[in-house]
Every structure is written in C-alpha cells, then in structure tokens.
Design a protein that fits this description.
The chain is built from two helices and seven strands; from the N terminus they run H-E-E-E-E-E-E-E-H. The chain has a domain of 65 residues: Complement Module, domain 1, CATH 2.10.70.10. The N and C termini lie far apart (90 Å). By secondary structure, it is α+β, with helices and mostly antiparallel strands.
C-alpha cells in the first residue's frame, strides 16, 4: 500500500464522526491490591475485579467495574475493594473506645517492665 493512501485512510478515520471509538476519559480508579490489564477502555467496558495474592474482594464490593457516560463525560461505576486475607488483619475503627485505650496502656506498660531475673546485671 502506498504511504499516501495509508495517511489518507488515517485522516479520514479521524475526521469522520463516529469513525473513532469513544474511549473512557479516565483510567479506572486505582484499587489498592488489585490489577487491570488493558491500556485503553471504551465506554461500556466491564472490568473484572481480581485482587492480588493475599487479598480478597470485600463482600459488599462489586466483582466488576463499568465505564459509563456520554460523549462529554465518562466515569467508572461499581467500584470494587480488596482487603487482606492475613489473620492479623482486622477492621477496627480509627479511634479506639476508652476501655480499649485503657487496656492498651496497661498492656504496653507490662511489656516495658522486665522482671529482675531477666535483666542482665554487670
């Protein structure tokens, strides 16, 4: 194919309305501990949410995200969320209850005090 014909085909594709695919304006939202494999997303694209190893999707989270919108705006619906499967990972409030604070202080103080027989004396 001659270079002039190829260039004409590209210009025609760009200039013809509807000749280009409507892409999602934004990348999907960044999901902690999850990955996506495509580089461009058309409106109407559905992404499966696959959490990284050691993480799982939360029960209330969606198993997929959908690129929606019109010619002027697009967005991602049904955001998924991943959480750790490690046994020590618990969901706790940011501010502990007063009883929890008191228990934590007592435990921290006990950990700092060593019995005399464990202290190395000169």
């Amino acid at each position: 194919m001659e270079p002039r014909v190829l260039v004409w085909g590209v210009i025609t594709l760009i200039m013809v309305p509807g000749g280009e695919a409507e892409l999602c304006d934004d990348d999907p939202p960044e999901i902690t501990h999850a990955t996506f494999k495509a580089l461009a997303y058309k409106k109407g694209t559905t992404l499966n949410c696959e959490c990284k190893r050691g993480y799982r999707r939360i029960k209330s989270g969606s198993p997929y995200m959908l690129c929606t919108g019109n010619s002027s705006h697009s967005s991602w619906d049904n955001k998924c969320q991943c959480m750790s499967t490690a046994p020590w990972h618990t969901t706790r409030g940011v501010t502990p209850q007063p009883e929890e604070q008191k228990e934590r202080k007592i435990t921290e103080m006990q950990n700092q005090v060593q019995p005399v027989d464990q202290v190395s004396l000169p």
